[in-house]
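To whoever is on call:

I kicked off a structure prediction for a single chain this morning and the downstream step that reads the tokens threw a length-mismatch warning. I double-checked the sequence; it's 352 residues and nothing unusual in it as far as I can see. Pasting both halves so you can look.
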Amino acid sequence: MVSRRNFLSGAGAITAAASAAAVSKVAMAALPEPVLQTRPDTMPPLVPNTGRPYNPVVTLNGWTLPWRMNNGVKEFHLVAEPVVREMAPGFKAHLWGYNGQSPGPTIEVVEGDRVRIFVTNKLGELHSVHWHGQRLPNGMDGVTGLTQPGIPPGKTFVYEFVARRPGTFMYHPHADEMVQMAMGMYGFWITHPKAKHPLIDEVDRDFCFLLNAFDIEPGSYTPKVMTMLDFNLWGWNSRIFPGIDPLVVGFKDKVRIRVGNLTMTNHPIHLHGHEFLVTGTDGGPTPKSTRWYEVTTDVAVGQMRQIEFLADEEGDWAFHCHKSHHTMNAMGHGVPTMIGVDHSRWRGRSPT
């Protein structure tokens, strides 16, 4: 993990984008130092050393963004920029992301926290960040051309709001979003409950990851951003098999997994060897009367599903999307079906 010092030359490089009453000039002149991640591994959970305590999540092949406390406000710094993401050993893609990686880092806060997020745009076009599923002031919703002007290249916009309800949310661009999201720009946001919650149980292991899709031709490094459905790479947190880390738990652990979908299609997520309950959506924790045991749950476009189960069967259990071509990866849609073709005349011959 790398910190960049002297990231901006001074306060003159900053655009004050929140209302004047929300953020003082002093706060604007003292940006939190951006923290970058250079590795695609699953990082240890970030145990809070300031602010209110909580049990942190583990982001699959990802990490949690550090913060600083400033007069009771939890401050983060996101940097939108081109990144190189290792999707599997030996395969790197040229994507866009935040703070050195795609997806961007997970943001973790506590219900009731006042949060200030500095977003610096190092892309070559306008940018903004939408806080998907959050209750917040309209001016902080992050929709370019509707609730704010786009963040110009080289400038910084400041979002500030109170994390009003616990749950699992996402963040993503709302400026040229088809291009920017196709390039890998999104991240998770977790708001932990401030106290014991009747619908949110304590767990032993808490994981999160985003589903994503890319169309990267063999021999290329950059996704084709105009693809609508015929993607050839389906990833979990911008990693593909065999580059996805395992979700390791102990026998009899209570496990929670939070899955967000910002692809262009739905994903029936299936767990082997166990039954689970869907305990949360983007709208918050589900009432207990609506929960039933399942082994597959569909995560539609723009949705999050939170599942929980007891890991009471030992072994290495598969966990995957049940659309079989999504588990295959590197799909060649132009390859003909060769089932039933007589291959005997080619046997033993060298390719010419």
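Update from on-call: the warning came from a stale cache, not from the record. Cleared it. Sanity check on the structure: The first helix runs from residue 25 to 29.
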